[in-house]
Amino acid sequence: MKYQHVEHTFEPVFDEKSNVLILGSFPSIKSREEQFYYGHPQNRFWKILSNLTKEKLPITIEEKRAMLLRNHIAIWDVVASCDIIGSSDSSIKNVEPAPINNILKQAPIQRIYVNGGTAYKLYKKYCEKETKREAIKLPSSSPANAAWSLERLTDYWGKELLL
């Protein structure tokens, strides 16, 4: 595989009641195909949030969006466009950051979280000086983070997110 320049093609999810913002790095190939966040079936993001909110696991994009908004959670990604090999976060270069302040101006976000180490590094490098807000790093929900079980991720995220 080789580098490909890719643009983020779907909008953030938030509304005027969103008080928590969770940022990923950049959508995987599967998420880009589905045109929504965390589309890879092995990614544990939706299972974690379902467990923490005590809601049924959402399947459709509409169910996912509704669960987020009911629980005042906004999601987006740190990167608006980049060069990337496949879905490999570690290959991301030539970053154009997402305009995260657009959400911060419209929603009462109290805490910003990043899903994984790469998202955290990219946020620190490209976004923090713009937002003037620190982000809290959560262990990645990606299947590549095999060292963390779903139960361990859910416990850790639950202690941090305080939903």
Automatic annotation (TrEMBL):
<dbReference type="InterPro" id="IPR036895">
    <property type="entry name" value="Uracil-DNA_glycosylase-like_sf"/>
</dbReference>
<keyword id="KW-0326">Glycosidase</keyword>
<feature type="domain" description="Uracil-DNA glycosylase-like">
    <location>
        <begin position="11"/>
        <end position="161"/>
    </location>
</feature>
<dbReference type="InterPro" id="IPR005122">
    <property type="entry name" value="Uracil-DNA_glycosylase-like"/>
</dbReference>
<dbReference type="GO" id="GO:0033958">
    <property type="term" value="F:DNA-deoxyinosine glycosylase activity"/>
</dbReference>
<dbReference type="Pfam" id="PF03167">
    <property type="entry name" value="UDG"/>
</dbReference>
<dbReference type="InterPro" id="IPR026353">
    <property type="entry name" value="Hypoxan-DNA_Glyclase"/>
</dbReference>
<keyword id="KW-0378">Hydrolase</keyword>
<protein>
    <submittedName>
        <fullName>DNA-deoxyinosine glycosylase</fullName>
        <ecNumber>3.2.2.15</ecNumber>
    </submittedName>
</protein>
